[in-house]
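Supplementary Methods S3. Input chains for the assembly prediction are listed below.
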Amino acid sequence: MSTAEQDQRAIFRDYIDAVGLQAMAGAEAAGLQASEWYALSRISAAGGLTSGELAAGTGLTTGATTRLIDRLERAGYVRRATDPADRRKVLVEAVPDALGEVEAAVAPARRRIGEVLGEYTPEQQALLFDYFSRAAPAFRAATEEIRAATRKKAATRKKKER
Amino acid sequence: MSTAEQDQRAIFRDYIDAVGLQAMAGAEAAGLQASEWYALSRISAAGGLTSGELAAGTGLTTGATTRLIDRLERAGYVRRATDPADRRKVLVEAVPDALGEVEAAVAPARRRIGEVLGEYTPEQQALLFDYFSRAAPAFRAATEEIRAATRKKAATRKKKER
DNA sequence: TGCATTATCTGCACACATGCAGATATTAGG
DNA sequence: CCTAATATCTGCATGTGTGCAGATAATGCA
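Predicted structure tokens for the full assembly:
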């Protein structure tokens, strides 16, 4: 590996670390646990999920998911609605107004990054936003990859314990 | 707010969200809680901290910090060393080898983002890395700002409870 | 209609992170 | 030296997130 390549790795690692810590702090400021923040993100991205779908996505049991929804609902971030087509199902939807709370948690980062972005030309800014829009799906895919691997590892460990 | 501005807000929000979720998944894969990941990041960034400094940084009590260090030590991420100048102090240092574990958790993101970056010209890549190196400190500052505000809010709430 | 299946919820137990108060060890100041 | 201050650790209690097993409600099929 060239030294330039190493530098890039270090810069990237440092950057990811900083963004990640910022996001965690934001979640904490919004009063959300990691699992809750993850669930809320999925719910709002999908425009609503059933309890079961959420359980599958988070890797939690259905029981734990019920409690997770309880907490999000009590905090005002989501609401329950019964699926009219199948009344056993519970549709969990994000409450639009409450997302402002999450938005507020990101505000400091937005302001500070805004200052950084202001130092670039409009053309350069456009490039950076192009990157943001392409990188987001890539990060989401990486997240699923990591979670899948983690779950697999946990399952293997459990199997060995028998 | 113009629609273009709104678009930018949405893109940025989405991007932060995706990076944050990825980081959390990485932390989970490494077997670390959010607070532990945050602590480890501070320790390795500072090249070693005392227990007290870590307590101040995380906002935890000294007792809780002792347990936090216990967990990180047991997991092999850090080691304790007594400060030769003041033997009351405990220096907490990151174990270099173990950081590979954390590095591995970031690997999927690095690979996928590498693919995205590969679609840009070398000049554009240079710009993006320039941004990374400038944005990281900005995100760290935002993190401290959020944490300070969160702690203040918690203190106020506690005061009202009396 | 009756029974199996599915979706969600509830009761119980457990693990674990954290705060608080007091204990221990070390240093600093008189 | 003796005492106060400082840094960390330990015992205890508490809140909370989660799994598991069984309960409840709704659907689908024979």
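Residues 3-119 of chain B form a domain with the Arc Repressor Mutant, subunit A fold (CATH 1.10.10.10). The CA atoms of residues 54 and 60 of chain B lie 8 Å apart.
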